[in-house]
Amino acid sequence: MRKALILSAIFMALTQTAVAEESTTTVDNCVIQEVLPGKDMTGAFVTFHHKGPQVNIESAEIPSITTHIELHSMEMKDNVMTMIPLTSPELNEGVREFKKGGDHVMVMSIPEDKMPKVGETHTMTFNFSDGTKASCDAIVKSVDEIMQEAGKAGTADMAHQH
Question: What's the predicted TM-score (pTM) here?
């Protein structure tokens, strides 16, 4: 009986520890845009679902492609959209999207032999200020697919407009 009580107490302690460390943030809709010819960088997009107290997004990782990942925002400067470091890393209760034309993940310095190809999936992991992480399988999509999903004309459509 005593062993059962001790084992029960240990189990409860382990279970409570696991629950305390569980992330309050999940990610989905993870997408990496194909790399344009002649480039060694591309964008990636994600939807965050956060519950609980505010946390900051500290970094992102896609080790199967590169170690050089940056988080960016877009800013209108002299009538031109330009990339700047992420201006607001906070995740508050609710949903936040990183999408084409807005906040996004920049996948940079991609080696020639690790170029992501349309249809592949790569694990994308986000690290938060509370020590938690959230991962997803990001599918590589063509520029046209991403532009269509963003509600913008794709490169093929743009070619017909000229």
Answer: 0.78
